[in-house]
Amino acid sequence: MKFTDGYWLMRPGVTARYAAEVAELRADEHRLTLFAPVKRTVRRADTLNSPLLTVDCWSPAEGVIGVRVTHHAGALRPGPEFELPGADPQVSVGKVVRDGSVVELSSGELGLRVDTEGPWQLEFTAGGRVLTSIGARGTGFVTDAEGRHFMLGQLSLGVGELVYGLGERFTAFTRNGQSVDIWQADGGTNSEQAYKNIPFHLTNHGYGVFVNHPGRVGYEVGSETVSQVQFSVEDQQLEFFVVHGPDPKQILARYTALTGRPALPPAWALGLWLSTSFTTDYDEATVNRFLSGMAEREIPLSVFHFDCFWMRGYQWSDFSWDADTFPDPVGMLARLKQQGLRVCVWINPYIAQKSVLFEEGMREGYLVRRADGSVWQWDTWQAGMALVDFTNPAAARWFTDKLRVLLDQGVDCFKTDFGERIPTDVVWHDGSDPERMHNYYTQLYNRTVFDLLTEERGEGEAVLFARSATTGGQQFPVHWGGDCESTFSAMAESLRGGLSLGLSGFGFWSHDIGGFEGTPTEALFKRWVQFGLLSSHSRLHGSRSYRVPWDYGDEAVAVTRDFTRLKHRLAPYLQRAAQQAHACGTPVMRAMVLEFPDDPAAATLDRQYLLGDDLLVAPVFSEDGTVQYYVPQGTWTNVLTGDQVTGPRWVRETHGFATLPLLARPDSVIPFAADDSRPVSDWADGVTLRVHAFADGAERTVSVPDPEGTGQAAGFQVRCQGDVLTIGTDSQLAWNVQLGGPTGPLHRAPAGTRELTLPWPDGGTAG
Known about the structure:
By secondary structure, the protein is an alpha+beta fold. The protein has eleven helices and 45 strands. α2 links the parallel β22 and β23. It is globular and about 85 Å long. Keywords: Glycosidase, Hydrolase.
């Protein structure tokens, strides 16, 4: 939210008060408190009739410093609050040191430095330099013409400093110059609104900032004062954490340690998901036609998804199968299971008035109410729909008891749609502040469903397909990009949003292959299939048209079959990337700046990404197959063609539908599973290690996960000395080594082989 009129003036009715100096310092060994008047204090009379800000500083974890600015401490705080598993409010691991008038709070390499005798200035330092600072107008509060009270903070931006994150946003990839409201909205993928709003940003100068406020946070990212990132909340208190890297992966590791790491989804979810689509006509015969069509065309399928109309119209949600369309749901689900499929069904947290659950929910107090005691209702989406009040534990149990019936029938997971349009003119069961609950509702909704799946299916088997999220929502994967159009532009904006979400702490992300609104052209469908099957999770889904490949031509069938089988072969590599997301918070799909923070050319790239550690993917966003992408330093190998390109440089190519730029990193070793018919197999049995452009002296360790996806089935150590490549392993199974690309020489190691030594071709080429 903007408060100024240019640099010199305030907007009409706006009054601002900023910390001017440190009047008093209180400090112990681990934390400090600054008392900051909003004007310079020259004589005793200056202490009268003027606000005093309390600024508490501490460190909840190494490399993280928290700052809490309070105006009036007596304000009510009804909640909700973000749960921060990595921050005990009673603990500070920081160390306070004083040197004359200068006091410093340090935590690892990160420091907060204050000169108590100078004008107001907080400097965050690391590695002997200032990362960012808070200056004369950087700490304070503002009142407007309506009498609203806002706390604000401003952090400086350095020359060339770029800002990323703030959730899944579809606008320009770098946030510089943007005004961003952290406020959940169902706005599609082609607007400034977002389904997943996260008050966390990071920059290319070695730090990130998390604003610990679940309600609306207004950001001005170099858009009000061009050299500042400003964030403001309508409150009497503002709390934020500065998170040091220095590299972006370490920033994400520390941020997700603070707010929660992603759970590890089941490995079977890596396979292809097929949906009924939304408003299309479908019944069990349609489902069987889809499945037999996929089988006849040898396209492996892992999950079948029933979208909204598995329930009767006007009755979402009643969690009961439409008996006219699906007369034998239990038998149908059993028949699907016999084909080796998992089943997902669509749900939302709304109860339509026609639903048999409405009267029960209203009677028992399970639905959100207005101040007069009436149930909140409207007709947008579902006629007379109400909202489940997840702040009521009994309501949450009631909701999950309905879902438990579906799990008993054979359903495996849920698409937790919606959760954004949450009213603020309501009263919550636990007394939560409606404004703060607007964003936070999705956390209660998704956690309730995810916890049920964990309870019923076991840890490591729970997976959602969720649309909305807030801070901490990364703990309940997977999330998908929401309602996009069937255009190349929407395909590109979806990728922008996914990369932004990854830089906001989310490890797993998907999207509607082919686009949701409209019907894709044959070319678009085939290009989106490539992109979708080189994403962490892959789902064919649309709105008014089906997404079965044969509706888009014979070549679309071949592309879908080939890239599904490619993903299955890459499953051990992808599962290792999933383990990294779970353990460290590094997303599976990585913006180039995350992997190459020191390469200036990577800073703004949003039409390509790293899939895991070692695969560069540049989706094709054109009808004619032309694509332009950037290759960082070294020799990169296309894993589909064996062609090599040496960077750093820009490359322009034209690709048919069988290929795209899918490049293996220099000095990389990528495990390919032997079985391409399914996502989960004994990956270590017959695994092929593809070795790409190994330089003299290069060494890599390769982990092949076990079939459960949680541990390691085999480990390999690969090193190059001169023109000799040596591979050692602890595996007792047979394995293979392929040098260079897919046509390179293949060497087989029988079961029990513990070491293999091979001549290394010049440059690691396929020849």
